[in-house]
Amino acid sequence: MGRPTYQRIADTLRQRIITGAYSPGERLPSRQALADEHGVGPRVAADAVQQLVAEGYVVARTGSGTYVRPRPPVRRLTRSWYRESRGGSPFRADMAAQAVRGGWESTSETLPAPDGIAERLAIEPGDQVMRTRYVFTGDGEPVMLSTSYEPLELTRGTAVVLPEDGPHASRGVVERMRQIGQHIVHAGEIVTARPADDDEADRLQLGRGAVVMVIQRTYYTQDRPVETADIVVPPDRYELAYMIPVDQG
């Protein structure tokens, strides 16, 4: 069974937006004009446009029409172990370098480690972890998500048990773990892409089904992993730059 007619029209309009046939800020043809072009009724044309509104490609302005959503500037996130090891917030430093006010909101809670997280942390499924969910912002707009997990067997009863509270709040994983004798020696990242789930789309103000990059990051001491996180990045807003040291010795 083929795709519904309104989806085929939405596919055509989406392709025109992606290829630049319709420029950012440009007004789309009226529903009637689209209906005439595709030989359908205005209701079908309206459904096609609504599909693009839901996906975040266009915005509807009451009494004015529907316009191609302006593309946000693509900013850079630098992934570098050496920047992490100096302390502070690499994200905030990246934003400041691009004249953007960087910040974040977070919530933390303890819970049993899900199977996949337990495997990444080399602990038993069900062992307690501290989960912290972040929404990172640039000039007040949501730009990146992160969900981190730390084993409570390491941090319980210490000054760093809450990543964003206490004397070492917001200092980053490397510096916080150093305070409790856990010296991180390397980090690993796996980068994949997938459609955002509904919660991620809502928190990042994306259209349903938008593709996001996912960075699966884990910090290790000489003996064990001590933190793991899933970082969700919209690729139309950010590019990842990896700084890889080369041993000259």
From TrEMBL:
SMART domains to which the protein is assigned, alphabetical: HTH_GNTR (SM00345), UTRA (SM00866)
Residue ranges annotated for the HTH gntR-type domain, each copy included: 3-71
Signal listed as a keyword: no
InterPro entries the record matches: Bact_HTH_transcr_reg, Chorismate_lyase_/UTRA_dom_sf, Tscrpt_reg_HTH_GntR, UTRA, WH-like_DNA-bd_sf, WH_DNA-bd_sf
Keywords: DNA-binding, Transcription, Transcription regulation
Matching Pfam families: GntR, UTRA
Gene3D superfamilies in alphabetical order: Chorismate lyase-like (3.40.1410.10), Winged helix-like DNA-binding domain superfamily/Winged helix DNA-binding domain (1.10.10.10)
Name of the protein described by the UniProt record: GntR family transcriptional regulator
